[in-house]
Amino acid sequence: MPARSIPRDAAYQIINDELMLDGAPRLNLASFVTTWMEPECGKLIMASLNKNYVDMNEYPVTTELQVCWEKFASYFEVELKEVKLSEGYYVMDHVKAVEMVDENTICVAAIQGQL
Fold first, then answer.
1. Which domain of life is it from (predicted)?
2. pTM of the model
């Protein structure tokens, strides 16, 4: 971390330039990742970034959308593996998550606001 801050536009440019060094997702034929989505999905994501997903009373509809993984697993007969949070430790244990990944894994996703 630098001793002093820099202007936000300069920070943006530095980070953006670094990210440009990554490969282009749309050209990634070596893995099964989502490389494109409809523009409406991006709009929904941007409109939801400022929500406090933990506050289920304030955002009840958002809470209902967190159950989509259970429905997907049920409808498509996919085994759902979850890394549960524990009291006092409110971040996903990445070691446990990696242990659950095997040759049949099709997706790893984070769901915020669940205990």
1. Eukaryota
2. 0.42
